[in-house]
Design goal:
The structure is a single chain. With 178 residues, this protein is mainly beta. The protein has a single domain, classed as Superoxide dismutase, copper/zinc binding domain (Immunoglobulin-like, Sandwich). It has 1 helix and 9 strands.
Length: 178
């Protein structure tokens, strides 16, 4: 019995030699949540976001601290890269269903379209939104595909109807989900 256990243990240890990193292989346990630290071009943390797999979709939460009072568009972008200063590396909005932009657009909306982030005079604001029919990983509506995803906060509010970004202005801050 001890010989069998030792042989199994030895085989298991040998199989671990040269293992790939966690990012190189599919996780044994499905990813149920990811976080992003959203930073401005100077690297200052202005918000945090979480994306959580729930029944029926992905729940996205954004919590800002330290922004100027106002209304800001927030979108999930298709690429998990946030190279300052303009954050163009985050690519376009996450749009696996090939729709137009905005919840008020008859041909919309992107899966990456989120509500506006309303920030008070104390610099804080938050929202929680469910992206129906989406998944964090796996399937045609996966947010975290091979190149990841990012959360981008724009300089202006989203009008919820103008393709491709709701007239939301430049990219103010960005965070990579991971």
């Amino acid at each position: 019995m001890r010989l069998i256990f030792a042989a199994v243990l030895g085989a298991a240890a040998a199989s671990l030699v040269g293992c790939a990193t966690a990012r190189d292989v599919e996780p044994a346990v499905p990813i149920t949540g990811v976080e992003a630290e959203i930073r401005d071009p100077g690297g200052r943390l202005v918000a945090r976001s979480t994306a959580t797999q729930i029944e029926g979709g992905v729940q996205v939460r954004v919590e800002a601290a330290g922004l100027v009072a106002g209304s800001y568009a927030a979108h999930v972008h298709a690429v998990g890269r946030c190279d300052p200063p303009a954050f163009e590396s985050a690519g376009p909005h996450w749009n696996p269903t090939d729709r137009q932009h905005g919840s008020q657009n008859p041909q919309g909306q992107h899966l990456g379209d989120l509500p506006n982030l309303l920030v008070g005079t104390d610099g804080a604001g938050s929202f929680t939104y469910i992206v129906p029919g989406a998944s964090l990983t796996g399937g045609s509506r996966a947010m975290l595909d091979a190149d990841g995803a990012a959360l981008v906060i724009h300089t202006g509010a989203d009008d919820y109807r103008t393709d491709s970004s709701g007239n939301s202005g430049a990219r103010l801050a960005c965070g990579e989900f991971g």
